[in-house]
Amino acid sequence: MDFERRIGDRNVLDKFTEDFCDVVDKCAKYIVVSGFVAISTGRTRATEDIDMIVEKLSKERFIELHSALDKAGFECMRSSNAEDIFSYLSHGDNVRYTRKENKMFPPEMDIHFVKDELDELQLRERQKIEASGLNVWFSSIEFNIAFKEELLKTDKDLEDATHLRKMFYTRLSEEKINQIKSMIKMLRRKR
Amino acid sequence: MRNKTHIEQVERWAEFIRDKPLEEWKPKFNEFIDAQFEIAKRFRDNMEKTEEGRQALKRVIEWRKTR
Q: Of the candidates B6, B37, B56, which has its C-beta nearest A167's C-beta?
């Protein structure tokens, strides 16, 4: 099945997401998670940002990544100093990047480093969603459902989870979702 | 991912909208929101191309009717 999208069809969010992910992909393993997964799989709703998890990098590798993002026209909203940004990330904080020309207006990429074995597993099991037309690595549908049903649990998250369950009904592993939920209980609930 | 940076971003965006004239932020805002709807629609259009995809869309539509 041909799910190709013509280059000229790229809208402002396609361009932002694919350009950012293309730079990160050359320096590190990453996944896009949460609300943007729901939108990319056909859910009509809005999100203010795109959430990304990046493998844990050494300071040197992160400085290379930050420099590549800077050259590609992105800026970090919290600091322009790569060592400071690395310090935030290595302490478990999130940081946001946007296009320099946007002057702090969305879209924004909210990134954090891998936090635990759960994030490491998400990274290992990442997938592309062909029908989205986006050349982007996403966390698996099972991971998104489990996080939304077991941890996030807002009305919006629960609706996202139901949307994903209906859309991917024939391909989902309930056993896998339950395994992930058990890991969430063990690793995230105690915090 | 509800975190400190998310709250900061919402505040920053609200301040931007409060402080700038409508004609400055509205086109940008519309383009950003429209892009999200276009991405969702593109996925659904691609799903329409296969029988499995059409069945999936049918399940979603049935669920939406019951909400």
A: B56
Mean pLDDT for chain A? Answer: 93
B12 touching chain A per CB within 8 A: yes
pTM for the whole thing? 0.91
Residues of chain A contacting residue B55, judged by C-beta atoms under 8 Å apart: 170
Share of chain A above pLDDT 70, in %: 94
The stretch A46-54 carries a mean pLDDT of: 92
Question: Whole-angstrom Cα distance, residue A134 to residue B52?
Answer: 20
Q: Which of B9, B25, B39 faces A14 most closely, judged by CB atoms? A: B39
Sheet holding A108-113, edge to edge: A30-33, A50-54, A108-113, A95-99, A74-76
- Looking at domain A7-139, its CATH architecture is 2-Layer Sandwich (3.30)
In-domain check, residue B59: yes
Please indicate, yes or no, if residue B15 is contained in any of the structural domains: no
Chain B hits for A13, Cβ within 8 Å: 32, 35-36, 38-39
> Is the ipTM here above 0.95?
no
